[in-house]
Amino acid sequence: MTVQAQILDLMRDLQAEFGSAIIMITHDLGVVAEIANDVLVMYGGRCVEYAEVDDLFHQPDHPYTWGLLSSMPRLDRVKLERLVPVAGNPPSLINVPPGCAFNPRCAFKEFSPRPCNVDEPQLLESYPKHDSRCHIPVPKRAEVFAERVAPKL
Ligand code: SF4
């Protein structure tokens, strides 16, 4: 953790010195929270959610992002509970599932009004500067997140 913090500091210093952007590819949401301004969540080779970092952590809007957050240990919580992994395995990128690539692993497709294994969702704006790729209507997604996901994070 100490070395990681030093490397992140170094990256920040270099970015400030050269006025450049940094693209960081990681599964570590702690690092994302620490260093990113904008976050693009990828699944099956496609962007499934794009938002400013605070919005992504406060109002995540895609079931895969919910899964990533649910499987992340929280050191700021006293209560120790079992982490909830995303069931199944990532798809092969040479054989991406039809429809929504996440559909074989999605625990929320019962809320979709369209067949997730047939229709591919488009990346659409859910909120200002916050896009996601899911068939569940945005208000319903917010409700599902508030009732079923957020209490367990
Ligand atoms: S489109 Fe369907 S399978 Fe894909 S994330 Fe949304 S609910 Fe889940």
Question: What key attributes describe this structure?
Answer:
alpha+beta; Rossmann fold; four-stranded antiparallel sheet; binds iron/sulfur cluster
Model description:
There is one protein chain. With 153 residues, the protein is α+β, with helices and mostly antiparallel strands. It folds into two domains: 1-26; 37-152, P-loop containing nucleotide triphosphate hydrolases (Rossmann fold, 3-Layer(aba) Sandwich). It contains five helices and four strands. A four-stranded antiparallel sheet has the order 1-2-4-3. β1 (38-43) and β2 (46-52) form a beta hairpin. It is globular, with a radius of gyration of 17 Å. The chain starts with a helix and ends with a helix. The model has no long low-confidence stretch (mean pLDDT 93). It binds iron/sulfur cluster (SF4). Iron/sulfur cluster (SF4) binds next to loops.
Number of strands: 4
Shape: globular
Q: How many distinct domains?
A: 2
Tell me the major beta sheet: 4 strands, antiparallel
Broad structural category: alpha+beta
What is the tally of helical segments? 5
Q: Report the helical percentage.
A: 25-40%
User: What is Rg?
Assistant: 17 Å
CATH fold title of the largest domain: Rossmann fold
The helix/strand series, from N terminus to C terminus, equals HHEEHHEEH
**N- to C-terminal separation?**
22 Å
What is the correct CATH architecture of the largest domain? 3-Layer(aba) Sandwich
